[in-house]
Amino acid sequence: MLDILTRIRQLVAEKEEFAMATVVKTWRSSPRQAGSCLVVTKTGQMIGSVSGGCVENAVVQKAQRVLATGHSELAKFGVANEDAWEVGLSCGGEVWVYITPFYTEDLWEKLDDALDGNIGTALVTNLSDGSQTLIEDILPESELKAVVNGIYQKRSNSLLSVEGVEYFVHSFPPKNKMILIGSAHITAELIGLAHMYDFETIVIDPRDTFAHKTDFAIAPDTLHVNWPQEVLGDYALDNETYAVILSHDPKIDDEALKILLPSGVRYIGALGSRKTQAKRIERLKSYGFTDEEISKVKGPIGLNIGAMSAKEIALSVIAEVVKVKNGVD
């Protein structure tokens, strides 16, 4: 849903009536994962998707009925489904789509506040009666709360059954963090892409001229005009953190690496040629880091796409970061 969040907010502000279709289960080959969402307005406008275009037309028709009746529906599409054949489902998989009128005003306010404040939450939908709640509002000692917590901790979207009732858990964890050491042209280009892929962006550069003179088309979420060692300790350097070293100044980069290498960050990439990386490795060894620790630094940074310009380098970096995030070797 995060990919269409801006448009959802616009529709709510305009008091537009619309339905929300959410993929709650898939089987075998399916173009969209559980949690993928499609908004359908009363006029038939579609925002988002629940397949590669295979079942959207049928979903729109069902969404119009949901809007007219106010009753949610669970629709299954697959190779043996007449509706699916009509709209051309040919991938050989199956997809279950839950279609409901948009959330109540109170629920949406709570969810939107959590998303806007980058506070993790999960939306829990009772597929029997259509009722919905957030994870924090479930009774703390209930079996449902325990099972939902388990799904949320895995950052997954999943069906579950508790006491004979089926629920769908749609997880909204806090954004992954991208920490960018050094403010420059590549930094500005990378921030635009990082925001597109829903990263929280944090820029650290003690050089006032670089920090305040860089032309950011999209501003970072946070800009620190400080040395890395002065502010990195304020952040959880965990498995949801990706660090990009871009200052090209060893006095800055190395101070960041001294903190990042022993931490639990998911990714560390450093700008520079192979020659620059070789010199960096020698310096890190002189600081006492082992070969295993140093091997965490990906350098030269980014996937090899023959990048030349700042835009292309930024593209190669975000591609490598997303590859690591998605667990692709």
TrEMBL record:
The XdhC Rossmann domain sits at: 178-321
Pfam families named among the record's database cross-references: XdhC_C, XdhC_CoxI
Leader peptide range in chain numbering: none
Q: Which residues form the XdhC- CoxI domain?
A: 12-78
Q: What domain of life? A: Bacteria
Q: What is this protein called?
A: XdhC/CoxI family protein
Provide the species name: Roseivirga misakiensis
